[in-house]
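anyone seen this seq b4? input:
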Amino acid sequence: VQLQASGGGLVQAGGSLRLSCAASGSTFRRYTLGWFRQTPGKEREFVAGVSSDGGNTSYADSVKGRFTISRDNAKATVYLQMSSLKPEDTAMYYCAADAGHLITSSSRRLPYWGQGTQVTVSS
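predicted toks r here
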């Protein structure tokens, strides 16, 4: 599966953004999906994951209550709605897919990645 992320940009602290990740291929509904982020000099970190049917989700503690992951299997797209943004949310955000279990902070070596989309939150 090929992934294409979009929706990043510059926003003031307290604002909102919605990231999208569109997938190619007719088997989108078989994949679990997730969002990760990375800042220069740091390891990529898990943000959120959603199961193949959208019924189960997982979030990093740092974004719980502020971010919401969802998916539209008919549109082969996964979303990350980000609210109450903080400067520390500034990062390159990546979407990822796996054909296995729900993507969580313990997930490693995910096989499919999209290119990043930059999110910058100004104070």
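The two ends are 37 Å apart (CA to CA). The CA atoms of residues 16 and 55 lie 24 Å apart. kinda curious what u guys think
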